[in-house]
Amino acid sequence: MRTIKIGMFGLGVVGSSVVSILRKNQDIIRSRLGMGLKVSRAVVANPGKSRPIPTDDIAISSDPSTILDDPEIEIVVELIGGVDAAGTVVLGALNAGKPVVTANKALLAERAREIFSKVYETDLSIGMEASVAGGIPVLRSLKEGLSGDHIVEISGIVNGTCNYILSRMSAEGAPFEEALAEAQRLGFAEADPAFDVDGYDAAHKLAVLVNLAYGTMVEFKDIHVEGIRAITPADIGYARQQGYAIKLLAIAKLDDGEVEARVHPCLVALDHMLASVNGVFNAVFLTGDNVDATMSYGRGAGGEPTGSAVVSDIIDIARNIKAGIRSKIPPLSVVAESLRDLKVMEMGRIQTEYYLRFQVLDRVGVLAQITRVMGQNNISIQSMVQPARSDHPDQPVQVIILTHRAREADEMKSLEEIAPLDFIAGETQLIRIARFTG
Amino acid sequence: MRTIKIGMFGLGVVGSSVVSILRKNQDIIRSRLGMGLKVSRAVVANPGKSRPIPTDDIAISSDPSTILDDPEIEIVVELIGGVDAAGTVVLGALNAGKPVVTANKALLAERAREIFSKVYETDLSIGMEASVAGGIPVLRSLKEGLSGDHIVEISGIVNGTCNYILSRMSAEGAPFEEALAEAQRLGFAEADPAFDVDGYDAAHKLAVLVNLAYGTMVEFKDIHVEGIRAITPADIGYARQQGYAIKLLAIAKLDDGEVEARVHPCLVALDHMLASVNGVFNAVFLTGDNVDATMSYGRGAGGEPTGSAVVSDIIDIARNIKAGIRSKIPPLSVVAESLRDLKVMEMGRIQTEYYLRFQVLDRVGVLAQITRVMGQNNISIQSMVQPARSDHPDQPVQVIILTHRAREADEMKSLEEIAPLDFIAGETQLIRIARFTG
Q: How much is the average pLDDT of A358-366?
């Protein structure tokens, strides 16, 4: 039986898992592929370092050319992460005529145009299932399962760290810092958590999703990003009283020829499936114009789930090789001639509902003034709750307002006008409310 | 731009939706495929019948050879349903060298060996995504997304009619007949509901899932099937008190070289995602040895969701044609040489936990006798609840027992021994409890 040789860049957690899976599951993989798969070369920064897996049968080097110039290597796997060196590897492999598998959402999001232009130019395959939502085959759903549908909407919980933190805050009333510390203790958050909790990781993944859904090359820098640091247990409690959970969502939709692409915390109705997604789990809601709402759920991170997705991409490319073709499905779902240059909609132009928490002094006429300013800015109010009165006239009270659908620019203008009013006793909290088309 | 011509058997709800989608979404389909798709011929029982869609550009006939013998037809779509005539169509198309798309789970399950042997023999593609869980791309997840994983377990809510009925019974305490009547009124159940509520439809779908997961050719007749007619609002209430919902599940796993494949009502822990799947929605839980638990959720029936899946299969085959290949992925996930002849495990040998509801006369010593018989048969009790005492000595009371994991044969033997005891005042209810590996 023929064996396809793989060259792997990076032998960290995911890389080691990929090697392990290819060994442990070689029987089932052979039965599905009719060929064998073997990582025969690896390139790492420090070849002498000890690894969690046996590497006797892998030729390890620090020199990329040992993989890129080896004609026996038919598939290149990039798992070094980062943007610069990884980009050199991926472009180098494509230029050498080798198909690529990568889990690197940062690279795919920050250098989308450069990478995908090269993939289209070479007509080679790029496997990137592991870059979004770990082992959940959500990119395949976009490229194949919903290939006859217009993608109406994408709404995803795609960062397990944030979802874990928000789940703990919700279950225990813990403040953000405490839930973050617990996540770090359990290995669900990095020592420097900024990349996750500030929403950048989710925005990288959203760029990949948007580009596959709409056949375009939006980049990370075009995406509006807010993280979860400002969410308080009080907000979670007030939201729950109104029938909502708070989740960090990555949202995309086509609207008037532009694409909305934004990552921020959202109120999600408690009876919506996304509100049931807790802990480190990920879930992506895809709505098509025919299939209506679908959801894919599973583990979004971790060596084995991510390794599983990398292996599925390797098998997909090996099936191309076996069939004698370079690729079957265009890298961004559409053929090169149909790529579009979609603009990301400015945030001021989006329309949504809002949760607002004002901190005000408990005086007569305060609510009238707030609602007057909002009315002047075309903001219509859905509900208003003042959960408790103040014990002392100088101690602020909380006022929770849920608005009807409004333009973001109008909403921001009303908050700017309200901020300097003399009864305002603290920063106003704004969280958007997610409504789903499916 | 080249247009691929499709021959369609059947122009009912799903067939009409497929034609509509191909027309309505022709721009997006062309952008993804780089070719056009057109239903140019249809074969129906009654060509003169009026249709819900314009058919001026479709040559309609009652003669199958108008499609099968037309060299211009490159893809055959079978949507007539049933087993005999549909089988003739599918085998005829394959023998004519034409790839096939079908939504026909009955055919795929009842004549699995015959159909798949022919598909393997011809090396043609058969698209069958629409046969399980409507528009949810769960077969693609099995064949591609989890291609590097051993499938540890499948647990699916794959019949929307049953899930709707159980959801209504749960939400409103309605008896089965009332919830069924409502489902019929809303078009969620057929006038003759047996096929759905007795579990046959779910078992057909399970056969398809099992064969794709394990590369085998299990048939419908091998699968243990129970429906939901015997479930009462009282059972749903007692289950809820113990922390469970009741769902009709299709379950499969590999166990000791045999495959468990069974459809029956199950208690599902309320905090498990499957317990949140309500109404006509479907969801399939797939657990892989690396990816762990994943779930796909969406609409399992209806013209547009099912049509969406048919169209995605047509596009997949058209991409093969464009790439110049007959097929890329083996029809049952594994290459022909690796097909296995797996035996379905006898129900007596499965092991699970049980919910039992005994109807007994309210006498001293009853619980002792029940537990003694169960103990003698190796059944260990997890909990026992007697929700109410009787007002009158002749009026039976309910005793709810949840058991630990036990062998089905032992469980059945204990019930046989308990049935004739003089305090038993009615049929004993048995519902299995689903535990998930992921």
A: 92
Q: Which of B215, B294, B327 sits opposite A298 (nearest CB)?
A: B294
Tokens of B43: 């074969």
The pair of structure tokens assigned to B154 is: 């499948």
Nearest one of B354, B334, B340 to B239, comparing CA atoms: B354
Q: What is the 3-state secondary structure (H, E, C) of A71-134?
A: CCEEEEEECCCCCHHHHHHHHHHHHCCCCEEECCHHHHHHCHHHHHHHHHHHCCCEECHHHCCC
Which of B291, B314, B339 has the highest number of chain A CBs within 10 A, making it the mutation to test binding with A? B291
CA distance A157 to A75: 31
**Per-residue confidence (pLDDT) for residue B337, from 0 to 100:** 97
Q: Report the distance separating Cα A186 and Cα A177, nearest Å.
A: 14
Residue A318 in this model has a pLDDT that exceeds 70: yes
What per-residue confidence (pLDDT) applies to A438? 62
Compute, in degrees rounded to 10, the torsion defined by CA atoms B326, B329, B331, B332.
Answer: 160
Cβ–Cβ pairs < 8 A, chains A and B: 223
Q: Is pLDDT above 90 for A256?
A: no
This model of the complex carries an ipTM of: 0.96
Closest CA to B141 of B288, B328, B348: B288
Cβ–Cβ below 8 Å for B25 and A290: yes
- Strand A126-127 with A100-102, pairing: parallel
Average pLDDT estimate for A401-414: 98
A-chain residues near B329 (CB < 8 A): 319
B39-83 pLDDT, tens per residue?
Answer: 999 999 999 999 999 999 999 999 999 999 999 999 999 999 999
Give A77's strand partners.
Answer: A8, A101
DSSP-derived letter for residue B45 is S
Q: State whether B288 and A295 contact (CB < 8 Å).
A: no
CB B286 within 8 A of CB B146: yes
Residue of B nearest to A438 (CA): B298
A77 and A101 Cβ atoms separated by less than 8 Å: yes
* pLDDT tens sequence across A263-305: 999 999 999 999 999 999 999 999 999 999 999 999 999 999 9
Pairwise CB contact (< 8 Å): B294 & A289: no
CA distance A4 to B147: 16
Mean per-residue pLDDT, B346-363: 96
Count other Cβ atoms within 10 Å, centred on residue B380.
12
Structure tokens at B365: 């010593």
Question: What is the arithmetic mean of pLDDT over A324-348?
Answer: 97
Please, what are the domains in chain B? 3-137+303-332 (3.40.50.720), 139-299 (3.30.360.10), 348-433 (3.30.70.260)
Give the pLDDT confidence of A28-46 residue by residue, as tens digits: 999 999 999 999 999 999 9
Q: What is the pLDDT of residue B133?
A: 94
A71-97 pLDDT per residue, tens = 999 999 999 999 999 999 999 999 999
DSSP A243: T
Chain B residues whose beta carbon lies within 8 Å of the beta carbon of residue A436: none
Distance from CA of A229 to the nearest CA of B (A): 27
- Extract the runs of DSSP E, i.e. beta strands, from A324-396: 351-360, 381-385
Q: What percent of chain A has pLDDT over 90?
A: 95
Taking an 8 Å cut-off on Cβ atoms, the answer to whether B34 and A338 are in contact is yes
Residues of B marked active site are found at: 205
Q: Do B294 and A136 touch (CB under 8 A)?
A: yes
Specify the 3-state DSSP secondary structure of B285: strand
Q: Which amino acid is at B86?
A: A
pLDDT band at A393 (very low <50, low <70, confident <90, very high): confident
Residue B409 Cα distances to A334, B401, B414, B426, B432, angstroms: 55, 17, 9, 22, 13
